[in-house]
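## retry 2 of 3
previous attempt timed out at serialization; input unchanged, resubmitting
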Amino acid sequence: MAKKKRNFSDDDFFDDEEESFEGEDDSVLGEEKSRSQLKREMLARRDLGEALVALSAARLAKIPLCEETLDAIHDGQRFTRRALKRQLTRIAALITEFEDEALIRQALEQLYQPHREEVRRHHEAEQWRDALIAGDDALMQSLIERFSEIDRQHLRQLTRNATKEQEQNKPPKSARVLYQYLYSLVEE
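## retry succeeded, writing output
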């Protein structure tokens, strides 16, 4: 069988291409999100809903939410497994429809901020303790300058005892006391 040869002119090709772009707006092309991006955003809202469902009633009252979203969250607190999964999807849809997601995330961040500050203070006291036991005299001097209420003699005594315990492989009783003393300084 012989194949039929089609003759296309360049004008035919360009005419079809121009017609396909006539109805589209350039601003829409640049702003359209991919399906993957939409799915990531929906999953992020579901995670936000899950965080809201996990909150106590007192903490939930501090989050700015409309009544319908609050009701959905209270329902979600009662559900388990598949029902909870469906409810989280509903909560995510309600957040999309009625709520300011950035405002909710900011309020959640404010709720968790004190906890993060406390963890930071604990880490700081631990680092100081470890450095003092290792013999960092410069840190000792900077702590004395930084905290006017510090008892120098007591701090040096605790450090010496903790160092001796570590050298003798004894339980770190003095190291714990030193940590508690340093943490009390950071708390104030």
